[in-house]
Amino acid sequence: MQNIGLLMSFAIFLTLILTGASTVLTQSIYNALLNAGVPMADAEKLVSIPPVYALFAAFLGYDPIKTLVEQAGISLPTAVFNNIDKLTFFPSAIAPAMAVGFYYAYHTAAILAIFAAVFSYLRGREVFHHTVEAVQVSVRNPTNVIEQVNTPDPVGGKTINGANGNTTDIRSDPVLRKIYAAYLLMNTELGETVLNSITGRELIYTIAVASGLPNWFIDFVNNINDCQFNNSTIEVLIKHVNMPDWLSEVVNGWLKVKSEGRN
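The structure assignment produced for this chain is given below.
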């Protein structure tokens, strides 16, 4: 509709311009010729320019006066001919007629714009119906996870921090908080980034605490700050410990991310 309306507007408004210009074009050119010194009889022979011819000649920068003088066989004084042969003569001669044509066109456009505004107002606001896709994010239950960490292992009777019965709260340990944050963010856009930020020592420390390994092993892991644990080390360790389900997800995700990064 926009393309069709654009083409129709050209046809309508050019018609209005030509119609308006044709009403005074003859008189406008005639007055300009008389003012340039052209005799009245010769001026009457030169005012037969069709409005379409005059309009497109002006748009193309073409001066038809010289051609009309030659076709009419009119002999004009050199000074007079030079006056009407200037590049500024023809545009100045048809300017009053073109002004009338544009007056008709612009006033018609203003009236149509007012009607369009009224109809647009009566139509009401435009309503957009968006189809929103629900994105489900699996929200973990922190209570269950903390209970898994803070209670003895029902299978082996072990506690988190070994045989002395001490327990460690996730919220009080920065490493455990980091690993648990990775668990909460798994299967989200930030999940892989958080998993990549976990070091092998942090993961082994969490496995040791959550699996109830002896204190001496946990202290050993904490004191080896420069040790680089690889995937094989962790894969061997998880075969011999009982980890909570949430930690198993983190470990498997970490191993997968590290394997993909190495490839």
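Interim note for the steering committee: The chain has a mean pLDDT of 75. DSSP finds 13 helices and no strands in the chain.
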